[in-house]
Amino acid sequence: MDKNLLLDVKGISKSFPGVKALSDVSFSVETGEVHAIVGENGAGKSTLMNILSGGYGPDEGSVFFQGKELKLKNTRDAQESGIAMIHQELSLAPHLSIMENIYIGRLETNKLGYVNYKKMAEKCKLQLECIGIRDIDPRRKVKDLSVSQMQMVEIAKALSLEAKLLIMDEPTSSLTSSETEMLIAIINSLKASGVSILFISHRMEEVFRISDKITILRDGQYIKTIEKKDAEVKQVLSLMVGREFDKAYNRAKNVFTGKPILEVKGLRDKSRIKDISFEVHPGEVVAITGLVGAGRTEVIQTIFGVNKKIEGEILVDGKKVNIKSPIDAIKLGIGLIPEGRKTQGLCLDMTVRENISMSNLQIQDHKHMMDLKQEISNAEEYIQKLSIKTPGMEQKIKYLSGGNQQKAIISRWLLNKPKILFLDEPTHGVDIGAKSEIYEIIDELSKSGVGIVLISSELPEVLMLADRILVMHEGMIKGELGHHEATQENIMEYAANQF
Amino acid sequence: MCIVISLLTPYFFTVSNIFNVLRQISVIAILAVGEALIIITGGIDLSVGNVLGLCGVILAVLAGLGLSPITLIILTIAFGCFVGLINGFLVAKIKINPFIVTLGMMSIARGIALLITGGMPIAIKNGINYLGGGYIGPVPFPVIIMFAIIIMGMVFTKRFLVGRNIYAVGSNERAAKLSGIPVDFTKMIVYIITGGLCALAGIILSGTLNNASPASGQGYELDVVAAVVIGGASLSGGEGTIIGALLGAAIMGVLRNAFVLVGVSAYWQIVTIGLVIIAAVAIDSIKNLKNE
Prior knowledge:
heterodimer; A: six-stranded mixed beta sheet; 24% strand; B: mainly alpha; ABC transporter involved in vitamin B12 uptake, BtuC; two-stranded antiparallel sheet; 3% strand; globular
């Protein structure tokens, strides 16, 4: 056996209810290697990292670390074996000091449990110096640090555990470019001292700058591992998206001109959206795509009046409008099917009927006294129209399947007869059957003249449905593609900002 | 439960005792209607007892000015609503945890009541006492008010949009907001209603006693929250009914009455009510565990 081999992953599979997140993934990492894992949203990167760091166990397959098979029950097991993970959302305790965070669970104490802060501070200072940080007092509270400094603390914590393998999930996603430079310098020095690093990123420039090898995952499958020196950005991108295009449903697409139903000019909010302008015509399906975190959801939620905008104009039917809250948007004929069915869509404890009617009731003429007969007949109509499978409209919605829950939320908005409809990841987590039903609904709405804005990370879905595609990257629209010129590759290039 | 009690004591099922129990629970039940609305939105109001006491004192002061009963009712209820508005504003707009807001209000209301009265009860000599002490035939007037409030509460939650929105806000605030529900307004309105009901309960209680004491209503918040919870509401919001709150108040009232009639130590009744509260929630919780 190669004695440089640090980590060897063999045939790992993992399923969650309804999805196969990973199937038969194998790859290996050598000592002192920087190994990038790349793939689209939902390719299984995070699941893989969680398995390696003890977050959950694989259904099949095994992991060998330093020649021994690993059986991890929790993250503590992983840390003791020498694997530490740095999560995308940092997992530090903000109200504790740097040193307390680093030595949490292993504080420097005497036999009575009295904490020797002085000794710990000295130890911590040395630890921080190892990664080139000399100017921070270990007694400072973590909440007063910048995001990059917090990340450094996480790294110091991992190293204090004598980690041989450091797993980093999107480490640069919240860093500025100079902070990113610092992180890259640290990664290089760690590498020189023999620590291996496995990192997830979708920023191609970084992947190509720091990694030695690149492993590509797609739809939970292992695709290929390539040496950085033999790889090209285009090749990696096409391997990431290269699945066969699902032709099961194809929508007749058009080029739209004339008077738009929705115009957005120079939209900006206080953090995520920088300068967004676009228009939607009646009957047009405009897709906004891009990587998670590009600001897609923020754009539509800001237009819809959920978040505050700082600058920008919104015109509906050519008239300038002032949308201060969702009810204003709803009255103008705008609908929003949010991402995250359970977090933003459903009232789980309420019935199917109540979930369907909850928005429409707000805009009735004589709304204060509810018209229950009308409500029941509306619910009946849409349960039938969208073939929502439920024992009855009085069933609590939490007992329905994901696809049927989603159709109930779509009914909620169709009931308002919108002129403009925003759909945010409408097919996320629904089965294939419900997916194509949702595609059909989108097509029918567009035929009846509704202007549609679709947010989706699934490129085949975008290509199948959209008349026009806007690609976002870090709060800006980086590319606009007509349906005839768009391919998965050029969308990904815009999304990763490779132009 | 009532059958067991009536076997133990034949006096339980007499008309006068039933009305007696109903009269005893009327104040708690009226407060529980408001508390249920708040708990359904996912909030809580700990100030109900002390706001009741303060409203009684305000009533007594106003009654001393020789105002007519109708004017007194309107002014006292308006005052209660105003206190509720302060609670609701702090919870909905300033986004302070309702537990903290109403804990503070609890102390403020008690303090103001003591400042006004100097700690001494104020006698009330006014026709308004009829609301608390009067009878229509054999039926005590507070019982009639209680049933009226319960029915209004049921109609409010079942037929009125605001009543429906209360459930949506408690079940998923984000989804409610995205559906165009005015979340802040919905939260404020339940505190205002509860404030008004505290005033009504305060009028009844001082009418029963013919005076307003700054100490009246003290500790009621626990009985009120208990009634709502026994009635099936969830403190995390989204669940609960008005009729449940009435049943919760009734169960506690019947237990208290039974212990007196059977002649068991009053201390045991305190222990038993604690057990009932835990048991009611435990049954629900175990049911949920099995569903998972």
